[in-house]
Queue: 3 jobs
Job 1
Amino acid sequence: MTDTPRKLLHSILLAGANRMSPVCWLIVVVMWGILGGGAAAHAQERMAEQTVYVGVLSDFDRSAIHQQWLPTMRYLSTHVPGHRFVLLPVGVSDLQRALEARTLDFLLVHPAYTNRLKAAYGLSNVSTLINQGQSVPLNKFGGVVFTQRQRQDIQHLEDLRGKTIAFSVRDSFDGFQIQQGLLSRHGVDVVRDSRLMALGNPQDRSVLAVLEGHADAGFVRTGVLESMVRAGRLDLSRIRVLNEMIRPEFPFRLSTQLYPEWILTAASHVSMKLINQVAAALLVMQPDDPAARQNNYAGWSPPLSPAGFEGMSGITSARVVSPAVRHPAAAAVQGEWQAWHRYIDHHSFEAIMGLFALFLLTLLLMYGHARRVNRALHASQAQLQVMAHHDVLTGLPNRVLLEERLTLALAQARRSGREVAVCLLDLDGFKPINDTFGHLIGDRVLQEVSRRIQRGLRESDMVARYGGDEFVLVMDDFEDQRQLREVLERILRVLARPLACHPAARVRASIGVSIYPEDARDAVALLKNADEAMYVAKRAGGNRFVIHHPAPEVVPAPGPMLVRKA
């Protein structure tokens, strides 16, 4: 605390200590905390590690929740210095009490509850999970309502009145509640108008019940049908999806609106500094991190607000917190105003003037503090925006920015009739470098490789780090495939040269190429075909590129001999 404010505060206390109301004492305490208490708290924080409690919503097996999320807690404890993150599984019935008691600092919850909790307790979104449960990394999901294609009597949602509907469990948000909400908006109350058949998890059971004729229709989460197709357990031509929604950016069959995946939120008492540290740590998590592998997710994305997703209100969340619950801050403000009026009625003019002066001084100090916090917040948000779209090690665009750029490139190509090439580049011989020289040299190799790829591309092309030693190149605006081949041959040549960071380390590359529109017409299929072509190049010896079509063409790096594979 500086001398001048300390002396002023001391004088005010001496002048009116005997006549100060509880309100005045409250303001003095606030002022003391702003001027001096912060230094003590900071010193204490430096002396001991701070424990951060993360609640995970669960009414089922708590031991499974611990096993599932403990690696993520260890990851945060490692990447947020000075903090130890502790997991607290919490049931729906305990959630309101825990938030009111401020025993939780962060809460991981599915989107059915997020809006209501934000309104009642002032929670703020930190990050959204990127789910990899159905092999495609996505931070959004939806529900599917389906029947057998041969059922001519079931063409629309309204046709489900009086029918038997198979689903997993009533408490499942993605397997029952969002489909129930969809049907309700179409005038069908499934509890009253239909016969319900709860089969438990996995949700595959609902699909089999419909195919075998035990149920007329079924509810599942998006991706379940496609997962069964990949496993050879379902012929998708036997299924009709009701109220099908076409979303170009979403690869699965869909009946409902899209919803964000599980959302990590922060309680209102958590500092903005800690929120930014947690968000930054999650955004740079790689899909191969033990925390991601343990929970079968691909990482975290910037927060998707459930408020931007249609159909969220009225689904289950009404059971979590009563609409009559008010934010604790609102009750505190009302109490302070009541105390202020009582003070004016019963105390002298001199005491009122002293309180008013103290109040003005407190406002002035709080205004200065708020300005400093606001500047720091803007700087942190700008840094987070960069981190959310770029790889930390190489500075290249990451998967999030790649998805945005590729979607834009394909949209422009559809209008102009141009071709777009998506190239998946994987380094040959990178693992021995890590094993022999260590991860520090491996990181330097990836940085130098990134710079070489950028120099080998044209100004209009893009390269992104896809993960590990994989990179994705997006190239458009080329006159013909001869020009595309020249660029790829140039990249293979520059990557094969000795590395400046370690002369003994040598790498080459295998590149798989998929071209829009002749090979595929959407981003997911282009990346999948490029991946297949890349593995063909690796099996052929590497240091070459392969253009994907029914009979892939294999072209090695520039050299004295050209090999073509039929």
Job 2
Amino acid sequence: MKRYLLLLFIGLMILNPGFSWSQTKLSKKESKQKEALSRSSRYFIEGEKSLVLGDLDKAFFYLQKAEDIYPNQPAVSYKIAEVLVRSNQAEKALPYAEKAALADPQNKYYALMVAEIYTNLKQPLKAAEILERLTAETEENQQYNLDLASIYLNAGEFDKALVVLDRAEEYYGIRDQFTIQKQRIYLRKNNLQAAITEGEKLIEAFPGNPNYVLNLVEILYNNAKVDDALTLVLGEIKKYPNQPELQMAAYTLLKEKGQVARAQTFLFSAFANSDLDPEVKARTYSSTLNEFKSAERELLLDKMQEILLQVNGENAAVLAAIGQRFEKDQNLPLAIEFYKKSLQIDPKNASLLEQVILNSFGEGANLNQLETYTQLAVDEYPGVAEFWFYDGVVKSGLKKDSTALVSLKKSLELNAGKNTQLEQVAFSSLGNSLYNLGEKDSAFVYFDKALALNPNDEQVLNNYAYFLSLEKTNLEKAKSMAEKVVKKYPDNSTYLDTLAWVLFQMGNYSEAFTYMNRAIQAEKEPSGTLLEHYGDILYHLGKTKEAIDWWKKAEGSAEASKLLSQKIKEGKYHE
């Protein structure tokens, strides 16, 4: 707080160079001047405070008031210009900035404000004039040469840009930012030799820096000077043998020249070096993987993979790249294993997460393990509808119905109708979870929504029909849906069981027996549900002894109903 008061006091002093501690009595005119100065200072201070707080309208109001009282104060004009620039009103700001710069030509900040405004107004050469003057005045302003060079480059004034960059280099010494800019200019002017000379100067100034060598190698390579690039790289490797980046360059150049065996020696040396960025290695491995498949390629990949696992076996990019190879070779389980290892190290990989999730669904899927990755996906990418959808489907399959509802509804919210396939399956899963939670009417609404998008979805048709049969409601609709599915899949025991149970609830026991018998015959080891249902149908056909025998076969099964023991004990059907 004390520091802030001190700054305000300094502001007052700036605005009033004649300020004095003298207690001499002032004339009437001097008193009015002092009062005006005091008001101007207060307005200036309030304007600065508002500017700091980001209230540009209020800042402009107070600073304008200060200028009305003392119109020739450059500090006030400068601040008004700053407010207008920040308000995207460069044209209005220009007169104020020029006024400040004219009143105090020694203040470089005023001049820089004018230059900035000219740049905003798309008048770069006028901005350049100001920067030329500043850099010519004193060595302290040489830092603005880079800005000046950029202006000339954007304006297409390449020769002027070169002069400025030479001037900056003379002051600061050889720097990569100067050299690279000059190289770009020379290349645009089709002066390849000058660009090469600049690169050689940089390498000489900073011996042992592979980046500067690679910069020149790229220029040579792009201009069909492969032999020169190779000579440069091999010469630098001879001087500095432990630079894997240069070994990678040698690999690329030698491969270009058809010297494959020699090229690979440099590749293996680079891969074995822990200093080489693992992501560079992973990209090189993936690039090789995308080449035409051959015995030679496979041998090369084997060797690269062996080194990668030894040196960078804990790197996410490397593990993902190796997983890609197994996926291409149709070895999906091993590919998924590598993808999972990669995600354990770096979970921020959307495409890999989707690969793992999608390829882990299916019959016999370990939903508990899969949930780990769907949960990871929504944590890392909370704005992706598909990840919430996968998480909801998995949770619904795990009977975690309350949390499934949250994920599925979030997926629908984010999807906003864009992906109808996602919507359709989400509606279906919502129906299943809502039914399990006892919200049966809502469940049926969602099943209807799912069928409106895909009337032939057998999973929805089957589940909807079965749930209606359990509720003993709308049985004709349930029968129609179940028959539709059985017609398409006549040997599917689950679908046959659903149709049989709908018919059972309708009291059509003979026809129910026909379909349930087919369901039993279709399974080598019928589930407890099938066995118990078969017994229930037989009981209603008057075959009590046979019914009890089938009920006993279902006894001990995880799928059996809670009433099974009572049915067996009493020899009577219970529901």
Job 3
Amino acid sequence: MSLSADPYNIDGYLLRALIRQNKGDLNGSMTDLRSYLEVRPRDHTAKKILSAIEEVYSNDSRYNPTDYAGYKQPLKLFFELSPRTSVGTIGLSDGSSFGSKVGLADSLADQVQILEPGRMRNIAFSGPSDLLFLSYSRFVVLGKDGALVEFEDQGEEFVTIRSGDVRSGSDSVAFLSSSVLAVSSPLGRKIDFYSYPDLNSLGSWSPEEGDLFEPRGIAARGGTLAISDRRNDRVYLLSWGKEVPYISLEVSTPRSVIWGPTGDLLVLSDNGFLSVFSMDMSKEWLEVDRIAVPEALCLLKSQDRIFLISSDGRDITVLEAVPGKKEGLILATGLFGPKTDTINEDTGQVVEVSVSLSSPFTSYIHSQRGVLSSVWQDTMKGGRIFEAKGRDLTAVIVAPENRYKFNGDLWDSVSEIGELERSVRKIWEQNPGFSQIVVDSEIQANEDDFLWLFNFCKINGVSLSVWGTKTPSDFLISVLENTGGNVYYSESLSDGDLKGLKTKSFVFNIFYPETISSSGYPSKNMLSTIADFGMISYRGWLPIWPDMLR
């Protein structure tokens, strides 16, 4: 309204640029900043803001070079189980992980183990060969005899939701969407595809090359299925519904495969090594790392962490994704809810600001001792970073035909992509700081349509998750990986299904500069913050003035 009344209100363009940045309209923000800098070309802070936005905008779905660092620990210690709890497996075959939960299939003991902090429970199941979480509370178990059973964790008991049969002798299962799954069949020498939940056959696949096909582990990333062929020392990347059917990678005796949190492919071999494959600029897959894991038998992933379980089920190796760029990763972030508080007479006042940090390296951020600096009119002061608790609200955006499938307190329904901004804005105004937005993959949209939503998530530290009611696009998967989201394959969702995301919300306490007063221009007293977490550096700005806060 102010700019409509007075188009020459130069400070108004700067303030509107910050508002547009925080709501994900980066094109509009850059336009306002350039207009502002035409009149105030010496405003170095505004130039830095523009530069940071251009960096974020030009890398909307970039690949983050990733290394892996971790530790080995007894399974009982990792899950903080009581001394009386007996752990271990007789014939560990495979498993899955989601959030703080790990599920292990013990084929010789005829049981499935579900482990989480302070708790271990067992499910009797004849000859389980694989387990796959569809959400936090739902998972399917595949048996050697072809039985496929979906369970729901209701807290005190596991309830069977549905069951059916696939080919006998099946070894591993992966979902391409909530209605399509793939099963490896080493005895049948094929990958079988089924509709779900009715389990009608949709066809099968086997490669034209090589000796007898022996598919073992399989893992889906959107429409791309990674398949380990142990007999032929290969891993196939099969594209579901695409013109290029598959490519193959040479790996010695591959057993398990899994997609890493930033799009890497991890392959566990029988020879005791974990191979990490990454795509280079020419779209060629290269082995970028090989990690010795001599006792590992089972390979799992939970958000940005990789779990390797020993053959006896008693030890766990945890690998955390860390930035692979040694020069560091610089990201922009949104700051909101500023307020002042008096600490004591020695430290004086602070400005308290809420912030959420978007990154695929969530565990890495929490493992670092964050260092905060603030700049008021070229005067630098320190600050403190505290992790915020209890901010785990979720906004779910679903298509109308799926409305009945979700039961939760915080959600909205849209009929087209253009309404997403309205829905997100309404929920954000009511509950600023929610942890994730879950987008139904059935919503018809192109990459440009989703770009503003992606930018909103990056700036405000919100994870963009996908409800895979149909096979998610490669772009949606890239967005998910860049913001640390999840893929949910449950046919229906409730609040209990959406847990498992590690919070990325923090509170910054910025020490108050008593000697600085307002000059009347935001450019002279803009509050700039720099938060460093190891090799990740965040930049943020707030248009607040010390004397106004007083």
